[in-house]
Description:
Elements: E1 3-8, H1 14-18, H2 22-32, E2 35-41, H3 45-58, E3 66-71, H4 84-95, E4 100-109, H5 117-134, E5 138-143, H6 146-155, E6 161-163, H7 170-178, E7 182-185, H8 195-203, E8 209-211, H9 233-244, H10 248-263
Parallel strand pairs: 1-2, 2-3, 3-4, 4-5, 5-6, 6-7, 7-8
Helix pairs in contact: 3-4, 4-5, 7-8, 9-10
The site of zinc ion has 5 residues, from loops.
Amino acid sequence: MVLFDSHAHYDDKRFEAEYEGGAEAALRDARAAGVLWIVNSGADIETSRASIALAESVRGADDMPEIFASVGIHPTETGRYESLDGAMEELYTLARSGCVRAIGEIGLDYHYPDTDRETQKKFFRAQLRLAGELGMPVVIHDRDAHGDVFDILREHRGIKTLLHCYSGSAEMARQYASWGVYMSFGGTLTFKNAEKTREAAGVVPRELLLLETDAPYLAPTPHRGKINSSKLMTYTAEALGKLWCESAEAAAEAAAENSKRFYGIEQ
Ligand SMILES: [Zn+2]
């Protein structure tokens, strides 16, 4: 099976603590399972820098997936930055590194009340503008903020957009698809109680659907609750194959093609 993990966090400390051999072993195992490409996503300035360093460290290694980076400030991290302009300048510099393929993950997260919503929106809009200036796609995190994310993205429809770990309704997925927005699905697609997610995935046009892990989070069934890694994508590909009434291999390949097109990776 040929797989593209369109969103993961291999710089996360959970790999060193919970995966035998750490992130390096997890990446090697992923390659052995057929994962040829991974986009490692930043969530603040430090992890964005770490994503670039990781991509550079595996370049040219035959036993590793090819790694690209996305750089951005996650909504729950926005409260840490005193100067919006200063943070944008740093991101701008990082985004110009050759392995960076998108601005992300950015967006809104209303799940916990800790981060002020207005601050989140300010950073979200500023990063969308930055992506527009750089001519780069954006990777969106939307947790319990579907309405506001939708409204802000509607203002920026010219930017190539991916909604990662799509969790909205089928109705909203249809609307996004009509704008050409990409949507990615991970382990949730395999969860027994995730009928709503499967219904949404079912209405996403075939050419707009990507697969991801969000590793180390959201491991698919039967590994739910444990550490996630890209090699477990095979379960998610199987779930997608079932949805599309085709083999897991064919579904994985179509999703990988979409990932390459979204991130501008030639092959
Ligand atoms: Zn993520």
